[in-house]
Structure formats: C-alpha cells, structure tokens
Amino acid sequence: xxxxxxxxxxxxxxxxxxxxxxxxxxxxxxxxxxxxxxxxxxxxxxxxxxxxxxxxxxxxxxxxxxxxxxxxxxxxxxxxxxxxxxxxxxxxxxxxxxxxxxxxxxxx
Length: 108
Description:
Blueprint: H1 5-18, H2 25-52, H3 56-72, H4 82-107
Helix pairs in contact: 2-4
C-alpha cells in the first residue's frame, strides 16, 4: 500500500481508537487495575472530605498540582520509569473519573 496522507491519517486514527488491542495482556490488565484503583481511592477520598468539610482549601491545590505534575512530566517510552509513569497516569485518569462522577451525583 502506498504511503498517502489518507493512509497515514487512517493508520493514526486506528492506533488512537484501537491501539490498546495491540498491547499485551500484562499491560492491559495493569492499565485496567490502575484505572479502577484510582477511581476507588479517589471516590473514597472525596467522600471523606465532603463529609468532613475541613482542609478543602489545602487539599484541592495539592491534588491539582499533583495531577499537573503527572501530566507534564512524561518520560520517553524507552525509559525505565515509563511503566511506573503509565501506572500513575492511569491512576490519575481513574481519579478524574471519580471527581466527575461525584460532581454529577452532587448536581442531581
């Protein structure tokens, strides 16, 4: 097949949407466990702080800074810290999902 712009775009779109299917079972299971663990920890964390109503002004900026550090500092895929960063990134995704879900629960 020739390397046309359309073939490059379709290949990149395919990798973006279905790239996780090419991963090994180990990486898929670690990613899923990390997302679910992040959701579980943060859902309990938020519930605790909502019920207490204390330290919100201190904890919210700390959480935001921690999330921004995870986003901004991404090692190269050849680094030995890349797998650890991937786990923390998936924990972050689960935590953000918990925050959004909790916001919908509070809004309804």
